[in-house]
Amino acid sequence: MTSLPPQPLSPLDGRYRAAVTGLGEYLSEAGLNQARVHVEVEWLIYLTEHSLLGGTPLSADETATLRTWAANFGQAEIDQLAETERTTQHDVKAVEYLVRGKLDEMDLGRLAELTHVCCTSEDINNLSYALTVKHAVEQVWRPKFDAVIAEIARQAEEYRELPMMSRTHGQPATPTTLGKELAVFVHRLERQLHQIDDVEYLGKFSGATGTFAAHLAADPDTDWAAVSQEFVEGLGLDWNPLTTQIESHDWQAELYARIAHANRILHNLATDIWSYISIGYFRQIPVAGATGSSTMPHKVNPIRFENAEANLELSNAILDSLAATLVTSRWQRDLTDSSAQRNIGVGFGHSVLALDNILKGLGQIDAAPEVLAADLDANWEVLGEAIQTVIRAEVTAGRSTISDPYAALKELTRGRRIGQADLIEFVEGLEIGEAAKQRLLALTPATYTGSAADLLDYLQR
């Protein structure tokens, strides 16, 4: 067997790359290094602007040049960092040398010693991870999630009044509407979205063990805690004042747990839609040129929802692991988080891929009203709930003396199919008030949906 040229090991970087490529801007090694360069440059500029530790202000052009260089971080910098790290065997030190080299190129060598000054590697790393994760959520994951919610909400409104047989424990139950059942998922997902939006992206910037010791040794007259807070918040993050060498990662655990919860709701959506397709409630719209089966040409398979299930499970395997492990660090520092955090992009990648598949899958289905109607018409026994409830109310109001109405309906309906004629005969023989009797006689499985359609109004509050 001949050797293959180098190949991507993960399908996220191979088969599915196009669906998740936006995450690479932030959650790849290059994205992390760009964020590190950004933090190092901003710290250098902050020190010079505030004349701290001997720094003198840069000119407006020098500041702009440094920021533009950091923002345009590209292949040349990626290659240079890789070459430097082969010698340093330390990723953040390589970034420091890269920034120093840029200062020399700009004839700003006098400021070289301000690069990475008073910083432990984790000061740079924790801020960089917070920035990259924040941007990945806001710029890539969130728009996909929003699009899925919007499409479910659109279909919920479209099918607001379309009656549908419910199934509890897989058995025919009180009818609902297809729109209301979809609206349940919209409501659940929007609740999770609010909680995800409330997550703080915390950052620390306080030295080797979170004490500002080196800072105060170099300049005891500066309020370094205030400096740290201003710098971290200036990056668009929330400041964490009490840490060890590392930021404690609690915010990451909270975020990943909430993303994982959202994934689980989406998984429930995918399995429900798959099941509705299997019983004909939804028709799949054939995609031109697509093949459902290599041997059965008639098939249109619900592969988008199956793909989503698998990727949501893979996403949660990573996110659950991160949420469980990142909150523990031995004493003031260990490096287990370093390896773990490099897989953040994998967790988000599988979630984004699932969202992409769900969105495409939702765009390839249509409700089948005739199937829904036929199922309802075949299950008149579901009106047993309405009849026995009305009888109870009539007994309470003194308009009936029927004893144990539940038992009477159980004997009539349990474990057997009955039709409209059977129920009409049963209702006409009931000892109840005439108004109640007429309400029951007018009822059909398709009209026994309560306020299901009106409940969608709560999505707009």
Brief digest:
This is Adenylosuccinate lyase. The chain is mainly alpha-helical and about 450 residues long.
* Uncertain segments: none
* Strand fraction: under 5%
Helix-and-strand structural type: mainly alpha
Element string (H = helix, E = strand) = HHHHHHHEEHEHHEHEHHHEHHHHH
The named CATH superfamily of the largest domain: Fumarase/aspartase (Central domain)
CATH topology of the largest domain: Fumarase C, Chain A, domain 2
> Could you say which overall geometry the principal axes of the C-alpha atoms support?
elongated
Overall mean pLDDT: 94
First-residue to last-residue Cα separation = 63 Å
Helical element count? 19
Plain-language structure description:
The protein is mainly α and 461 residues long. It has helices spanning 17-20, 24-27, 29-49, 60-71, 75-88, 91-105, 121-158, 178-197, 213-218, 224-234, 250-278, 303-325, 336-341, 344-362, 369-377, 384-396, 405-413, 420-428, 434-442; strands at residues 163-168, 171-177, 202-203, 238-239, 282-284, 365-367. It folds into three domains: 17-119, Orthogonal Bundle (Fumarase C, Chain B, domain 1), CATH 1.10.275; 122-290 and 297-373, Up-down Bundle (Fumarase C, Chain A, domain 2), CATH 1.20.200; 380-444, Fumarase/aspartase (C-terminal domain) (Ribonucleotide Reductase Protein R1, domain 1, Orthogonal Bundle), CATH 1.10.40. It has 19 helices and six strands. A two-stranded antiparallel ribbon has the order 1-2. A two-stranded parallel sheet has the order 3-4. Strands 5-6 form a two-stranded antiparallel sheet. A hairpin with a 2-residue loop joins β1 and β2 (171-177). The radius of gyration is 31 Å and the shape is elongated. The mean pLDDT is 94. One of its GO terms (molecular function) is N6-(1,2-dicarboxyethyl)AMP AMP-lyase (fumarate-forming) activity. It holds the Pfam family Lyase_1. Residues 15-308 form the Fumarate lyase N-terminal domain. Keywords: Lyase, Purine biosynthesis.
